[in-house]
Amino acid sequence: MNRLSCGIDIVKVDRITNELAERILGDKEASIYNSFLNESRKREFAAGRFAAKEAFVKASNLKELDFKSIQFINDEVGCPIPDDTLKKAVDVSEISVSISHEHDFAVAVVVMLKGED
């Protein structure tokens, strides 16, 4: 039997500091974060990833996971996708994430499908 779950979160971008970004971003995400030269773009990126991680925790109900282990990287066109190890770690068929930014806020939605491929 397939089970669909969803999580959503919103973050105020100016809440994000470099110290918070260092605490929550995994190695691959930190590499993307550090590639930005503009500080406001860095905060926006980290806020989106923070929202995605919170949405993931809500969808998976796995509150014990370290945020650094929940990584959303970019596909070949720049869309956020879960890191390969994330899907295996939570034993799901599909994880879809959408991140959006608007002025002072970043929002993310994570949808997960557990069950047969």
Question: Topology of this structure?
Answer:
Blueprint: E1 3-12, H1 18-24, H2 27-35, H3 39-60, E2 72-74, E3 80-82, H4 84-90, E4 94-102, E5 105-114
Antiparallel strand pairs: 1-5, 2-3, 4-5
Helix content: 25-40%
Order of helix and strand elements from N to C terminus = EHHHEEHEE
Named CATH topology? Ribosomal Protein L22, Chain A
CATH homologous superfamily assignment: 4'-phosphopantetheinyl transferase domain
Short note summarizing the structure:
The chain has 117 residues and is an alpha+beta fold.
Report on the architecture of this protein.
The chain has a single domain (3-114), classed as Ribosomal Protein L22, Chain A (Alpha-Beta Complex), CATH 3.90.470. The protein has helices at residues 18-24, 27-35, 39-60, 84-90, and strands spanning 3-12, 72-74, 80-82, 94-102, 105-114. The radius of gyration is 14 Å and the shape is globular. The termini are close together. It is of the alpha+beta class. Strands 1-5-4 form a 3-stranded antiparallel beta sheet. The protein is 38% helix and 30% strand. The mean pLDDT is 92.
Question: What attributes does this structure have?
Answer:
117 residues; alpha+beta; Ribosomal Protein L22, Chain A; three-stranded antiparallel β-sheet; two-stranded antiparallel ribbon; 5 strands; 38% helix; 30% strand; globular
